[in-house]
């Protein structure tokens, strides 16, 4: 089964890691942890895909309001949690996906309050049969 592990943060988390909030050594430690974490998933054959996302200040939201497209540049004041990155893994079940996600709590640096979310990826062909 495939699962998406979603890592959440906030603009404050990104700000804490900015030039004034984190040393180059701190940023390198986080990068090293994530590289090792991802390499271990690849070696186990469980990694399907992973991507990190840029800061919310670089995001753009598109909505339909009263029939018109409305585009808003980030950050979005009403949004506390933002998607920071994701991993798609293929593993034996939700318990294994949870073990994988829990390892992200070992990452050095600020611990985002939002943490991680694990979502099964729908297999539409299989779901239609049930």
From TrEMBL:
Family matches, as Gene3D superfamilies: Dimeric alpha+beta barrel
Domain YCII-related, chain residue ranges per copy: 1-124
UniProt-listed PANTHER family: BLL7171 PROTEIN, BLL7171 PROTEIN-RELATED
Protein family (similarity comment): Belongs to the YciI family.
Protein name, per record: YCII-related domain-containing protein
Annotated source species: Thermocatellispora tengchongensis
């Amino acid at each position: 089964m495939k699962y998406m592990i979603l890592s959440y943060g906030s603009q404050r988390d990104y700000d804490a890691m900015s030039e004034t909030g984190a040393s180059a050594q701190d940023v390198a430690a986080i990068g090293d942890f994530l590289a090792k974490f991802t390499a271990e998933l690849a070696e186990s054959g469980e990694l399907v895909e992973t991507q990190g996302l840029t800061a919310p200040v670089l995001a753009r939201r598109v909505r339909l309001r009263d029939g018109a497209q409305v585009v808003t540049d980030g950050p979005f004041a009403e949004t506390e949690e933002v998607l920071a990155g994701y991993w798609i893994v293929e593993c034996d079940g939700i318990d294994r996906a949870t073990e994988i996600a829990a390892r992200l709590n070992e990452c050095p640096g600020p611990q985002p309050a939002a943490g991680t979310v694990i979502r099964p990826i729908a297999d539409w062909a299989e779901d239609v049969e049930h």
